[in-house]
Amino acid sequence: MPPVSSIKLILPPISPAAPGSLYEQIVTGLKRVISEGKLEPDSALPSFRQLAADLLVSVITVKRAYEELEREGIIYRRQGLGTFVAAQGQDRSREVKLAHARELLLTAAREAAESGLSPAEITQFFMETLNDYAS
Asked: Does residue 75 sit in the same domain as residue 95?
């Protein structure tokens, strides 16, 4: 049986000025903390109302974020008990993030090709960018 007490989440700041809708920012933040292993399987998440109050967003925004994470198999809900990280939540979150990263890389490769770079130049460009990220 999952624990019934929830933990205090530390998510990146949620802002209307940041890219993406508020619920997408919540989804992204939760995926990050789950994929990094900061939330163990069966960890209780804050209630809709609590997280909405913590993030200064509407309950509907949090509910929508939780529904998307549940649909992706990252979290699950137990009637009357709350919302929890799924046993495979870390793996599913990582898979979803890697699929998104792949989409972004494909978009970047297409943009680089459309700017006139050859495949070898695109590879070099990616390696230089990766080195910039690593340093």
From this structure: no
Which is more confident, 18 or 76? 76
| Mean of per-residue pLDDT scores for the chain | 88
**Domain at 33, CATH number:** 1.10.10.10
65 class by beta-carbon count within 10 Å (0-12 exposed, 13-18 middle, 19+ buried): buried
32-56 residues labelled b (16+ CB within 10 A) or e (exposed): ebbbeeebeeebbbbebebbbeebe
User: In this structure, are residues 55 and 11 in contact, taking their beta carbons and an 8 Å threshold?
Assistant: yes
Please enumerate, as own/partner, the contacts of 14-21 that have beta carbons within 8 Å and a separation of 24 or more.
14/55, 14/56, 14/57
Which segments of 36-76 does DSSP mark as H helices, in order?
48-55, 59-71
**Order of strands across the sheet that contains 44-45:** 44-45, 82-85, 75-78
Question: Do 109 and 76 belong together in one domain?
Answer: no
Residue 1 lies in a domain: no
Tokens of 40: 């163990």
Find the domain containing 100 and state its range: 90-134
